[in-house]
Amino acid sequence: MLGNCMDNVRNTVPLVHNITNYVTVNDVANILLACGGSPIMSDEPEDVADITSICGGLNINIGTLNKRTIEGMFAAGRKTNELGHVLLLDPVGVGAGALRTGTAMKLMEELKFDAIKGNISEIKTLAIGSGTTKGVDADVADAVTEENLDEAVAFVKNFAVKSGCIIAVTGAIDLVSDGKKCYVIRNGRPEMEKITGAGCQLAGMMTAFLIANPDAKPEAAAAAVCAMGLAGEIGWSRMQDGDGNSTYRNRIIDAIYHMNGEILDKGAKYEVR
Amino acid sequence: MLGNCMDNVRNTVPLVHNITNYVTVNDVANILLACGGSPIMSDEPEDVADITSICGGLNINIGTLNKRTIEGMFAAGRKTNELGHVLLLDPVGVGAGALRTGTAMKLMEELKFDAIKGNISEIKTLAIGSGTTKGVDADVADAVTEENLDEAVAFVKNFAVKSGCIIAVTGAIDLVSDGKKCYVIRNGRPEMEKITGAGCQLAGMMTAFLIANPDAKPEAAAAAVCAMGLAGEIGWSRMQDGDGNSTYRNRIIDAIYHMNGEILDKGAKYEVR
Amino acid sequence: MLGNCMDNVRNTVPLVHNITNYVTVNDVANILLACGGSPIMSDEPEDVADITSICGGLNINIGTLNKRTIEGMFAAGRKTNELGHVLLLDPVGVGAGALRTGTAMKLMEELKFDAIKGNISEIKTLAIGSGTTKGVDADVADAVTEENLDEAVAFVKNFAVKSGCIIAVTGAIDLVSDGKKCYVIRNGRPEMEKITGAGCQLAGMMTAFLIANPDAKPEAAAAAVCAMGLAGEIGWSRMQDGDGNSTYRNRIIDAIYHMNGEILDKGAKYEVR
Fold first, then answer.
1. Which tens digits make up the pLDDT trace of B186-239?
2. A33 reaches B (C-beta below 8 A)
3. Chain B residues with CB inside 8 Å of C99's CB?
4. C21 contacts in B (CB within 8 Å)?
5. Residue C162 lies in domain
6. CA of C265, closest CA in chain B: separation in Å?
7. Partner-chain residue, chosen from C25, C234, C257, that has the shortest CB–CB distance to A23
8. B46 touches chain C (CB under 8 A)
């Protein structure tokens, strides 16, 4: 099933508008090409509405936000909503500063997102900030483990319902929920934390998967998460003596380049709760 | 002959000022170093005139333009013209939005370019927008093929005359013309479309080739196009099992690093019409 | 001794705030992860104080400065000084234009830096501009060689005293001085000049080393320089037929990824004068 979501990307070549940070933007572009999508970057307020209009969706990443690009995020997001295109938020570093937190909260208030992807700390910040968590929710631990999995799944489902978005939490165990079911995903390698931008790459790719699978968005989001983790496993298996994180980054993108639905279905490790 | 243009780059180490997009800027810098040039990036209006003054030419790429960098493009371009340095335009995404199209047209009106490099769709947009195409010209197809080659050559020659620039159209078949003759180039690999920034890299390298060959600019532009395509072929021949687009990007730049005039002359596939 | 400085980085995972150029920012992030640190990038004036507050130090690189990011540099630098965090300056291209030179001088006047790292030409520009060099100092050659080593060491020691910073001059021979002693370092490969951003990467890594070694800052700065040069040697030894500067960039970061204190102590080539 998840494999089908990837094949749909290759068959439809979704055009993805990215307003993303300048640290990992090149890798986002290359992984989008690798998975069968096509990337466009534009963050100038006067340019974004035109660009997003010719795309199938918009990936907003606040990693190196500034006042001009924030304005671009809102302008592009409004146009995306107006057109009914896919809209995804990657709230990089939310909680680390007032501008980031305020911007992410305001984006959530004024725009309708299809999906939000972050680590547990970022997602918790959004949940607490938007007043949608109370009591036990806020107690969810800072890492999703086998021990606290039940609470974490409940938290993610709950926030998905309250926010009206697909919520994807990445970590050693990844969780993807639309509020009804929750994909618990165990693909990936711990070494992926040693490359910059694995999360940003996933956000770009997830946007492409959502565009290509309008009738199966939760599956599409889960498929993107499994694909990224599986690429981390395949890329790692190709590491040679002396290779480190810079080469690993290339091998992960290379693994996506060669992945198709069959490989993904065979390698995806997940359960649905 | 073309090989000589590349050797001149290595012998003179041209300094290239780039106002380019933040997606592929690192690859532009590395390919400039690989071919024997030297890159500088600066887009702040108050900095660009000083920087361009110490360079031999300026590469303007509008891929992630914003209002501040547009101002920088005009300021740097005027200084470059004033000093008689090489000026190149890479109109990335022109036609995809009003700001891009308007900026590219205004750059062409206010500045004197030595060369413009784009895909057929971008070049057609410029030709139509600048009112230099009429009737049959506007009918040129959206890809240059063996079937429509005669019309495409005529279109490119015509636009080169009317714009007063060397026009380089990249695609499966590349065309480079100064209005009199047209290089028809058949180097390259289709897989190059799966890496981001091959065109941006070519634009940076072409600027270096133009600076290093002031008396043979059409040949220099054609040499840069052949070198990029040949690097795509050499890079591809070094791909190993499991390598994908991320590694391919590295291998293309690596191939430029090892290329010299002799290798280029041996591998260049072109005819002059 | 120097090896210990590297082990301290891996043991404490210093968080480094970088306001750096968009050309090499991805490599800076990846080398920081490779050496055991953790990178954050933020240059928006309204965001930087929050971000720098959660970090251990700030790396300011003026390579693609603009008016907004200059404001961010001062705001972040003041907060960093206020908190007593590590502050480093990489004055890329100072002397190439009035805005760069003026900004670097003003940063030195208004902020208290722990270290400044540049090539000899950049450091000379700062020394002359700040009026701290007279007579013989200004005569120091444009490259540090075995022939002019004595004068160069004297110049660097002198400027370290007058500026109150650790001064690191990179080149064929690297010099690091706190004004009392001077590390003369002979690690590295000439081919490192053919990759963009080796210096930027070093600046990021040096900031991490300084944070992790508060009581041995000169040693920490020297250790970072040795580590970078040694990585250049190890990376080069792993180059295969056809590999060029793009692959070399990856291999250098990979070499840092596998380096530890023992490897560094064994490979570091330096004397103290």
1. 999 999 999 999 999 999 999 999 999 999 999 999 999 999 999 999 999 999
2. yes
3. 44, 46-47, 50
4. 41
5. 2-272
6. 31
7. C25
8. yes
pLDDT in tens, C10-32: 999 999 999 999 999 999 999 99
Please answer whether residues B144 and B170 qualify as being in contact, where contact means their C-beta atoms are separated by less than 8 angstroms: no
What span, in angstroms and rounded, lies between the C-alpha atoms of B57 and B204? 10
Would you call C43 and A66 a contact, using CB atoms and an 8 Å cutoff?
yes
Smallest CA–CA distance, residue C2 to chain B, in Å, is 31
User: For residues C130 and C157, is the Cβ–Cβ distance under 8 A?
Assistant: no
Buried b (16+ CB within 10 A) or exposed e, A70-86: bebbbbbbbbbeebebb
3-state class (DSSP) for residue A128: helix
Count of B-C CB contacts under 8 Å: 92
| DSSP output for chain B | -HHHHHHHHHHH--EEEEE--SSSHHHHHHHHHHHT-EEEE---HHHHHHHHHTSSEEEEE-TT--HHHHHHHHHHHHHHHHHT-EEEEE-TTTTSSHHHHHHHHHHHHHS--SEEEEEHHHHHHHHHHTT---GGGGG--SS--STTHHHHHHHHHHHHHHHTSEEEEESSSEEEE-SS-EEEE----GGGGGSTTHHHHHHHHHHHHHHH-TT-HHHHHHHHHHHHHHHHHHHHHT--TT--HHHHHHHHHHHHHH--HHHHHHH--EEE-
Q: From chain C, pick out residues whose CB is under 8 angstroms from the CB of B42.
A: 64, 93, 97
CA–CA distance, B47 with C161 (Å, rounded to integer): 31
Q: For residue A219, count other CB atoms closer than 10 A to its CB.
A: 20
* pTM of the full structure: 0.97
* Cβ–Cβ under 8 Å, residues A246 and C257: yes
CATH code: domain of residue A209: 3.40.1190.20
Q: Is C116 helix (H, G, I), strand (E, B) or coil?
A: strand
Q: State whether residue B21 sits within 8 Å of chain A by CB.
A: yes
The pLDDT, as a whole number, for residue B137 is: 45
Residues of B in contact with A47 (CB under 8 A): 65-66, 97, 99-100
Domains identified in chain B, total number: 1
d(CA C194, CA C198): 9
Contacts of B254 in chain A (CB under 8 A): none
Q: Are A224 and A206 in contact (CB under 8 A)?
A: yes
Min Cα separation C192/chain B (Å): 11
Subunits adjacent to chain A (3 or more Cβ pairs under 8 Å): B, C
| C-alpha count within 13 angstroms, C-beta hemisphere, residue A121 | 7
Prediction ipTM score: 0.96
